[in-house]
Amino acid sequence: MQAVSRAIATNQAGPHEDLARRVSRALQHPLRKPIADHTHQAFEVAHRWLEGRAAPLILDAGCGVGLSTRALARRHPGHAVIGVDRSADRLSRDHGALPDNALLVRADLVDFWRLALRAGWRPAQHYLLYPNPYPKAAHLKMRWHGHPVFPAILALGGGIELRSNWRLYVEEFCLALGQVSGIAAEVERHVPEGDYLTPFERKYHLSGQALWRCHASLPYAPDLLPLS
Ligand SMILES: C[S@@+](CC[C@H](N)C(=O)[O-])C[C@H]1O[C@@H](n2cnc3c(N)ncnc32)[C@H](O)[C@@H]1O
């Protein structure tokens, strides 16, 4: 695969000026979007699978074609690894058999995270690897830390790791995480050294772009998401 990826172009000079207000709003106002039927059904399948394994959970949110889900399952054979993505096309690409301790789920994360929280899921580790950046300032609300579902992501607790090729996305995520949890997380450089966890990680690195991460250990805090 030829790795050519253009650097992010944004009209933001620094963290979005509306970030703190949006995070406060998400903490105060319930997210009223109804849960889609297909995600309900997909979640039930995942829930039964997880109960059957009785192993600590690793969640790979926005797993794309599922290569990271496979790699994490091989690295952590004592864990149950669930990759979630809304793209049936990406999930259906043939990347070989799934390890026994891995599951790929087609679902909308905005619903899936809320169902996971309601069901009492507590991932040991939660990855958000190279989410769509939405770099225009007007699209803040589409970045995970600007979205009303953000409190649910953090409420699940455990280790959380976000990676991006856009430093500002990671900086905003760290700021929002600090606002919600009081935990000071720093933007760190991520150097894969040939060991790529995802296709986007590989593509960006081979295009000469720097990669960034935000990592934190969060308490389980189900009350963070306001009730609807
Ligand atoms: C830029 S790709 C990164 C994929 C993979 N993590 C990687 O690094 O190669 C972002 C992925 O997030 C998924 N995604 C975006 N919004 C989503 C949502 N609301 N629910 C589920 N998946 C979503 C997209 O379908 C896409 O596969």
TrEMBL record:
Catalytic activity: guanosine(46) in tRNA + S-adenosyl-L-methionine = N(7)-methylguanosine(46) in tRNA + S-adenosyl-L-homocysteine
Enzyme class of the recorded protein, top EC level: transferase
Origin superkingdom: Bacteria
Listed InterPro entries: SAM-dependent_MTases_sf, tRNA_(Gua-N-7)_MeTrfase_Trmb
Any matching Pfam family: Methyltransf_4
Keyword Cell inner membrane among record annotations: no
Keyword Transferase listed: yes
UniProt EC number: 2.1.1.33
Keywords noted in UniProt: Methyltransferase, S-adenosyl-L-methionine, Transferase, tRNA processing
Function: Catalyzes the formation of N(7)-methylguanine at position 46 (m7G46) in tRNA.
Name of the protein this chain belongs to: tRNA (guanine(46)-N(7))-methyltransferase
Source species: Litchfieldella rifensis
